From TrEMBL:
<keyword id="KW-0812">Transmembrane</keyword>
<keyword id="KW-1133">Transmembrane helix</keyword>
<keyword id="KW-0472">Membrane</keyword>
<protein>
    <submittedName>
        <fullName>DUF554 family protein</fullName>
    </submittedName>
</protein>
<feature type="transmembrane region" description="Helical">
    <location>
        <begin position="12"/>
        <end position="29"/>
    </location>
</feature>
Length: 40
């Protein structure tokens, strides 16, 4: 059984998108967090 390119890279692409989304949200809300949490 031969896997398609999508089947081979599906999980990797989902992980990359999740990291990018989380990083983007972190940058956007960083200014709203208390100073103590920003230093962690």
């Amino acid at each position: 059984m031969e896997l398609t390119l999508w089947a081979k890279t599906n999980g990797t692409l989902v992980n990359v998108l999740t990291v990018l989304l989380g990083s983007g949200l972190g940058v956007l809300i960083r200014g709203r967090l208390p100073g103590r949490m920003q230093r962690i």
